[in-house]
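## retry 2 of 3
previous attempt timed out at serialization; input unchanged, resubmitting
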Amino acid sequence: MVPPPYPPHGRAKGLLFNYLHEWVIDNHGEDAWKRGLARAQPGERALYDGLILASSWQPVAAWNGVCSAFFGMQYPDPNTGMRQFCSYLGDRELTSLVKMVLKLGSPEFMLKRTGFLWGRYFDTGKFGAEEVGPGHWRLWLEGPADDQTTAGALTCSNGPGPWLERGLALSGNGGTVRHVRCRYQGLDRCELEARWTK
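## retry succeeded, writing output
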């Protein structure tokens, strides 16, 4: 099988960098942000010296580095912090229009669109979803296990789940989305299980 033509260096959307900065300031303060950023690589820090446009594409390696630097410093378990941030991201990203659609729609409506949602933030990796049974879907993320090319383990393990859980809650069908397999552990892809009560 021929591997997908992933770009040599993947990209993350600028809005992620901006939301992270905003969330850290609001929840931990300016000093915590400065300490976390001081642990990042010079090129990663330099991004914040200028204006990061929400619509711009930035190196995904810089995203992975900034997240590792801050969450690794601020939390005994960095996964906890990343999950909190991604829940916040879900709240911020699900605009009034999307909230209205989700309230009128269904969990299935949202889960069928995970590929589009992933592509909003990262330009590498392929997200898919399939129904397993009533109130039970399996989602997967295929792509390289390389934090220079796509979202690192911290993001893929803790990002989509909280974001999608916010969507389930807005659709009136609160449930859980759990990361159960990870390509960063030598597996062929990441997998998530979404469950809710119908």
